[in-house]
Specification:
20 helices; elongated; 2 domains; alpha/beta
Length: 505
Amino acid sequence: MSRLRHSPGRDVSRLLSDFGHELPPVDEPAPKTRPGRLFEPSPLRGPRRANGGWAGSPHPPLSAWRMTSDQAPALWPFVAAPGLPPTGAQIGIDVLAGGAFYADPLGWVLRDDVGVTNPNVICFGKPGRGKSATTKAFLLRMLDFGYKALILGDPKDEYEPLARALGVNPIAVGPGLPARINPLDFGPLATGWERLSRDEADARAGLVFGRWLTLLRGLVGSQRIGAHPVPFGPVEEQVVKTALRELTGHARAASRLRETTIPALWHLLANPSESLVTDCRYDSARQLLDETRLLRDALGQLVDGALAGLFDAPTTIRLDWDAPLASLSLSRLLPLGDEAVGIALTCLSSWGRGLRELARPGELRITVRDEVWKQMRLGPDAVKSFDADLRLSRSSGDIQWANAHKPADLLSVGAAGSQAVTIAKDLLHLADTTILHGQDAGVADELETLLGLPPMARDVVTRWAMQGKGRALWRVGERHCKVQTVLHPLEAQLTFTNDAITGAA
């Protein structure tokens, strides 16, 4: 038996063709080609070279999730690029960028990409939120960059451990202590006065007398008649300036000026000389006495008041400007009240400004002013004195660092709408760097009104920063950085400020 072979048969087109029907031709489809690749594929385990790489698994397991942008950061945190250059003191962690945060207030001024025009810093924070620790950590770490620190008034002796750790004995000012500070000290400007020409001497005298008038205006204005400060107008200024010129010998063109004090000024105004009466254009000594009674009484309170003997005698201390840190302790004045501490801070401010008037080129210093609100509450002229210090930071090369509890402290320097409050608000614009540690939720409106913080920034201050010490919102120009200060264990010991509470517990 033979196997039959089956022919494949005719397809539809062949069958129709045999009966005279032709189907229309059909275009052949173009052959499929794979698109070109941007990168050449690499094998499972590629070469060991840059951009070679290898895959741990050819088909890694994947899990697909659908969520909103508000939920996504919980599983895949959004990471921002570092907002500031890595120069200056390394403070801690920039939580938004995920990297280190560096603080360099003076260096930021020199950079066009940061948008900062002055190196001043105002640090706010509720007590216990890490304000003092951040300040001291900044000081310690900036010492490595050639800076030196001056603590112009330490009301609570917080900087004494830091000073002693650096081998410096802090200077204590208080009743019964030997330290005396004359706020009318010439400072370095007295050096070489005898070699100056008349024009040069007049120019230098203008600097000295201008500083003294700013101080005396603030001290006189700290005394009150009921709810109003003692006036210090053009008449009082002319009398005080003329008396200072006579006391120092500048009115007689002396080649070497004498140091004077507040008691000497008060005594001359109470017993005016003929030249003082004439130079001030009074008809008689009696007229001068009658029209300057309030001025004399205000100065007399400073001479015979609670601070008698502390700021009305020649200076008995000498700061070592080559030391890394100099601190002036005022804790012994706390029993005398906030006003006495504020007056002391005002005197130290003027004295410290005098010491910096002839700073060497390239000398860098951080001037810390703690509890600054006590000084500003003395009145408008005390606020103007602090304002003058902030405005001189660019010319002197200093970083002015001020600590306060909350922005509303600036509103407590006077009545609503007063000149003092207006100037105090403007001080916020003289500090391009603002550090905001944790604050209660009730302060949120102040943060918006005084600082213009948007809602997210306010939440950082009133929520996130309240959940741990050292957390703060750093506002550098128009940039906001969410920063966690990180302390070395040794720094934590030097910056600890709850010794009294720990001892009581």
